[in-house]
Amino acid sequence: MSPARFTNKLAGQRVLLVGGTGGVGISVAQALVEFGATVILSSSRASKVEDVCAQLVSDYPAAKDRVSGFACDLASPNVEANIEGLFKNVGEVDHIVYMAGDRLPTIPLEEVTLEKWQKCNQVRTIAAVLVVKIGTKYMKKDRHSSIVLTGGSISEKPIAGGWSMLALIGAGLNGLARQLAFDLAPIRVNCVAPGVIETDLWQGMGEEGKKEFFANHESKIPTGKVGQPVDLAEAYLYCLKDANATGIVIHSNSGTFLI
Ligand SMILES: NC(=O)c1ccc[n+]([C@@H]2O[C@H](COP(=O)([O-])OP(=O)(O)OC[C@H]3O[C@@H](n4cnc5c(N)ncnc54)[C@H](OP(=O)(O)O)[C@@H]3O)[C@@H](O)[C@H]2O)c1
To answer: Could you give all domains of the chain from N- to C-terminal order, each with its CATH number?
Structure first.
């Protein structure tokens, strides 16, 4: 029999996808199932978690014992208790991928208030830190265990239009991943920084607004096409599989840095 040194790297691994019911999460979940991993999805709405799990099982019937999910609202004031509850349900994991993100916090500076700024941070940074704090108690202290955070290309590439708060959040996540790679070693910690990816994250713009925004972006970027979740999923897979990668930020952004 031929060796399977590469294709089996994720087989049998338990991977928790926090915010795993969105566009990016579903693609990563599909890839993980295809590579033989066990996928546990989480997001705030139980009905969405159930629907996405059911769709995965329908697409991959042979993987029905490798797909499960639990609701956990990260925007709640009880976020810490919610996360404790999530990990009690999930148990031991080999990897945690954090990709939860609520409505895009594009707030012009003059409209920022303490309350709005705290709300911007709750799901993307505050809850991320708490998931890492609590989640590491459920991980082996091993370089084959890893955590992947999700930032964004905005951390390196400023654009006009009220993105300053999101740039700070993205840059903070890059720094957090690098620092935690030391603090949590030998568990690996990395960050994926997507450019524009075609998912529901942009639905707040409305169908017409989104079409216009994507068309304008595509007229400038080298690939000529906004990123698709199936493209970006590769960045997460790489972070999980390369036991030598820690403290790095992986960019997948249609060549955005070149424009
Ligand atoms: N798409 C892009 O262009 C892009 C670019 C840069 C960075 N990113 C980042 O990539 C990550 C994934 O984005 P996506 O494009 O897949 O977005 P998406 O389709 O909107 O998915 C977001 C995920 O976060 C979950 N979520 C939202 N609020 C939550 C809460 N209070 N508690 C728990 N989970 C919550 C959503 O599920 P529920 O709503 O059911 O809770 C969903 O599973 C986000 O962090 C986003 O900021 C995306």
So the answer is: 14-202+229-253 (3.40.50.720)
